[in-house]
Design a protein that fits this description.
The protein is 35% helix and 30% strand. It has 107 residues and is of the alpha/beta class. Strand 4, helix 3 and strand 5 form a beta-alpha-beta unit. It contains three helices and five strands, in the order E-E-H-E-H-E-H-E. The chain has a single domain, classed as STAS domain (Transcription Regulator spoIIAA, 2-Layer Sandwich). The relative contact order is 0.19. The chain is globular. It holds the Pfam family STAS.
Length: 107
Amino acid sequence: MTILASAPLGRTTLTAPTVVHVSGDIDIFTSHALRTRLLNALPYGSGRLVVDLSAVAFCDASGLGVLVGIQHRASRRGVAFALRGPRPQLRKLLRVTGLDRSLRIVV
């Protein structure tokens, strides 16, 4: 799994969200690194955090747990949280688990 921020953390703008690009697999072996990176990204940006999943090939239950946990933490901090571009397989997983109703997905 590779994790990249769209802009150096610490630089804020009034309109642009903080975007974290994730690629590869999100599984038991990589979910801790993803959780750490997303937690570090929460305080930055304009109060919006977007996780770009367009390059994620696989996500297991531990990855879903990270996304749900970050959404809860973001909400408590007043940060809008969204997922962008999940591939069809991940979109189906979100739908089957019902997480598509609680995790905001943007185009």
